[in-house]
């Protein structure tokens, strides 16, 4: 029998400081994605590195993937509270490196450090929810953590846009450094005193397979700075081969990162992982390049451009809340409608980005977010619910890894398309106009393939639910 707990239960004095720390960690991590999108044009103008514009994002996401796989190891060795505080400190150090960076290469290095700290913060937030709160409170706390992403829609562009408008993009990273330090202090005082494990088996970090993931992302990012089209294609294919090799090795491992049926076309979890990867890839180019397009083609200031792109994140959050309680039958339809809406939004942005006036562009940008929001939760639900016996934890932990890998691969692929379209020659109007069409239109096929995967997932999930219902009815008769 399930127990429903109202919001008032979370207002007890013993819970409030803990909630502040957990929500603060997720907010600090998520706001930096949108903040970077807002200040990136200012960074390029100051230190150069036009061809490397996708690298700060891919470095951040690749490092977050590493952190996601290391979180269990860190918790066992350090304890949950120490690991969370360490994540905040590392995040602040990365922000400080970005603040003093003399070149785009150093910015990328700083973002890599930030990504590891942010990945620990996000992963540890959910670990601490399970450790510190009674199970009936989990849905409410999870909703608060999701709401932190909505808050980042306002805070990220506001911080980045304000400093960029004042001509001081470095100040944004100094501000983040201070916030990270404050979070570490709050967490040290409010999180439960969870001790590190002494003795017993210690979870081993699969460095080899993690290295393959990061190498694949690095190879794809390198493709954005090479000049020969054949070299770009070769590096792209090499990255795909590395990812496939990682999955094959993982299936043979005694300590796998993913479920045994990862990306299988014949299982619910396998198709759901493919679905999650595809919609994450399709969503990723907006936050990196659309602010540059809006500033270069329409004279938007950094703050306005950041908020225009933030509409996609807001659409994701709002639509996910609205559809979260829908029936399984309606959920199956959303698995198809969501990616199709993303395809329409991306196609519209490609066709209308260079036209004036730009009133319809925010609507199309928001449509991409609405699309992923209507289908993401149902895809994740099937990914976790379809896991094989004994692999529930693997399926749950794979969600963040698949999402971040999709974002990283999409960002790297967008960088390749942008350079091929002419953006590598500098932020000229002609180069921006060409990239403004080819970058979003190149991801329309990805969204359409995701819709096909959504059809497959809905059919498989329907059959699985039918089998479970038959088994339940038999057990009741017995």
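Q: What amino acid sequence fits the structure above?
A:
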């Amino acid at each position: 029998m399930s127990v429903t707990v109202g919001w008032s239960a979370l207002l007890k004095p013993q819970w409030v400081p803990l909630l502040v720390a957990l929500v603060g960690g997720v907010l600090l991590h998520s706001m930096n994605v949108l903040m970077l999108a807002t200040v990136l044009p200012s960074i390029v103008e100051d230190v150069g590195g036009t061809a490397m514009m996708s690298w700060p994002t891919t470095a951040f996401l690749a490092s977050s993937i590493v952190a996601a796989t290391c979180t269990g190891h860190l918790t066992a060795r350090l304890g949950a509270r120490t690991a969370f505080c360490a994540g905040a400190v590392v995040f602040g150090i990365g922000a400080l490196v970005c603040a003093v960076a003399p070149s785009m290469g150093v910015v990328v290095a700083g973002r890599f450090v930030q990504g590891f700290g942010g990945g620990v913060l996000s992963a540890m937030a959910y670990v601490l929810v399970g450790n510190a709160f009674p199970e009936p409170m989990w849905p409410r706390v999870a909703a608060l953590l999701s709401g932190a992403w909505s808050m980042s829609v306002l805070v990220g562009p506001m911080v980045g846009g304000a400093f960029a408008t004042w001509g001081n993009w470095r100040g944004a990273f100094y501000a983040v450094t201070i916030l990270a330090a404050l979070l570490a202090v709050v967490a040290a005082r409010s999180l439960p005193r969870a001790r590190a494990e002494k003795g017993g088996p210690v979870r081993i970090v699969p460095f080899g397979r993690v290295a393959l993931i990061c190498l694949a992302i690095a190879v794809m990012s390198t493709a954005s700075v090479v000049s020969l089209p054949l070299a770009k294609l070769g590096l792209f294919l090499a990255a795909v081969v590395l990812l496939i090799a990682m999955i094959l090795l993982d299936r043979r491992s005694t300590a796998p990162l993913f479920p045994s049926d990862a990306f299988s076309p014949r299982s619910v979890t396998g198709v759901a992982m493919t679905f999650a990867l595809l919609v994450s890839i399709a969503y990723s180019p907006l936050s990196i390049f659309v602010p540059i397009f809006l500033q270069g083609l329409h004279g938007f200031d950094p703050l306005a451009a950041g908020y225009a792109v933030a509409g996609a994140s807001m659409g994701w959050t709002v639509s996910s809340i609205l559809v979260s309680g829908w029936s399984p039958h309606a959920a199956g339809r959303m698995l198809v409608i969501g990616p199709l809406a993303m395809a329409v939004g991306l196609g519209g942005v490609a066709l209308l980005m260079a036209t004036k006036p730009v009133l319809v562009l925010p609507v199309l940008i928001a449509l991409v977010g609405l699309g992923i929001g209507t289908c993401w939760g149902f895809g994740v639900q099937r990914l976790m619910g379809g896991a094989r016996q004994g692999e529930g934890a693997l399926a749950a932990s794979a969600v963040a890894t698949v999402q971040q890998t999709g974002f990283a691969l999409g960002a790297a692929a967008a960088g390749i398309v942008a350079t091929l379209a002419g953006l590598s020659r500098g932020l000229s109007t002609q180069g921006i106009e060409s990239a403004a069409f080819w970058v979003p239109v190149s991801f329309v096929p990805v969204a359409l393939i995701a819709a096909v995967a959504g059809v497959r997932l809905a059919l498989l999930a329907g059959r699985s639910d039918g089998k479970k219902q038959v088994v339940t009815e038999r057990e009741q008769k017995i």
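Q: And what stands out in the fold?
A: Residues 469-473 have pLDDT under 50 and may be disordered.
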